[in-house]
Here is the input.
Amino acid sequence: MTEIKLSLCPFCGVKMKGMIDMDWIPCHERLPESTEPEILCLVTYQDYNVSEGKWGYRKLGIMSYLTKYGIWNTKALTNVLAWIPSPDPYKEHKNND
Here is the structure.
């Protein structure tokens, strides 16, 4: 359930009022669904380090999910671990004064 409250910004870790607090959705539990052919999501992912032969540190990023094909739009050696739906773009409120 989503709830507006004081929470941490997922990008910088700063406490911000009015952010939507959402739980991460692990990819092994559920993938994004939409009638749109491509949607943006905030993701936690890892890149494979070929020179070290192992998965790297977990990173935060924005990636698109191709709903028609059921895949993340990433480079070959990237593993998306979990995701959160992206919020709607900012809309300026018009003052009716």
